[in-house]
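pinging the channel bc i need a second pair of eyes. not urgent but kinda urgent?? the chain im working w is below, pasted from the shared doc
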Amino acid sequence: MEAPQKVATFTGEIRGRRVKIFHLFSNYKFTGPADLALLLAKSQQHLGHEVIFFSGTPPHESPNHLCEIATERGIDVRSDLFLPKHFRLRQLLNDFKTLKQKIKEEKPDWIHCHLPSDHLLGCLIREKQSPPIVKSQYDLDPVKNLRGRFCRSRTDLWITPTPSATRNLCSWKISQDRILEHPPVVDLLRFQPESKETPIAKDQDSIHIGVVARMQHHRRFAELIRGFSLAAKENPSLHLHILGRGTHQEEVAKEPARQSGFADRIHFPGYLDSKLYPGHLAQMDMLIFLVPGSDGTCRAAREAMASGVPVIASRRGLLPELIPPKAGLLLDDDSPEAISLAILKLSQETGLRGDLSAGGRAHTESFCNAETLSQALESELQGRISTI
């Protein structure tokens, strides 16, 4: 993969100057995009900028997990706005008035939007003298509905995760000078290669395969378990660990595991505490990722690479561009037979596994660094900022 693409060229100078940034995030749950948004905000704060993060407001008495995690990370998070995930006209009108006032009082240098609802709000308040609007895109395709078309011309800079996502924006009549291409970032301090601590029971000869995904029908758990079973017939040292939960977990994963004949080697740790998860992930010998969920940037796969865990991935969504050849194996198809062959290849070729482990960590260090994105974003916004 080449270095992050610089496609916007503006004039002016802000490097070394303290700026103020508003982040709008229309959700209160700690999703994959939420983690990316917080990592960027924290890195901007670390570079000396003032960051104010507005999170969505949960229903009455529900916990605001995003707010809690942002506070733990030392980010100034506010609850002044409703920022619902889905379109709510009354709340949108209230947020419009409140955000207008906040902009007048705080005078941010730019406003960073992350999800469709907060993007709409940011674009509604966009005026000639308003701060620039930045939009992070977390999927292969932009939102092309009526709201998306409204926001298209009112967005000053788009951040795309891969070359294909950039091409799709360009085909939607977004000029290249309004696009910054940068791979999704990873928390490189939290996710690191295997430490001396061992959260799971491992003997010297066992091979542990991880899966991190909600147990849903469309995530192809039946094919995955069948693929593991085919490999397990040939290699008695293989173990499969399915991390996560889901409303239909019994029928989607646990019952197929019981019927596989290898139930004693298919483990369900469930949903792990956030403090335990990085260590558990790092102990895996490989990770399988077949179907992107609500997070198009496939957080678990990127965290595995940062942890030095080789990734076996399908060619769905952004995965072919997120997983470079030096960090994992891409399946020609995600049939049980193809999954089995990839598992056996990595389990048998320890040298290859070691090379992919080192390659994944090196890739994330070079291309998935939040401070690199922050600095690139500053450079792209030079000349767009009038209140320095």
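so Confidence is low (pLDDT under 50) at residues 6-13. and The chain is about 40% helix and 15% strand. — does that match what u expected or am i reading it wrong
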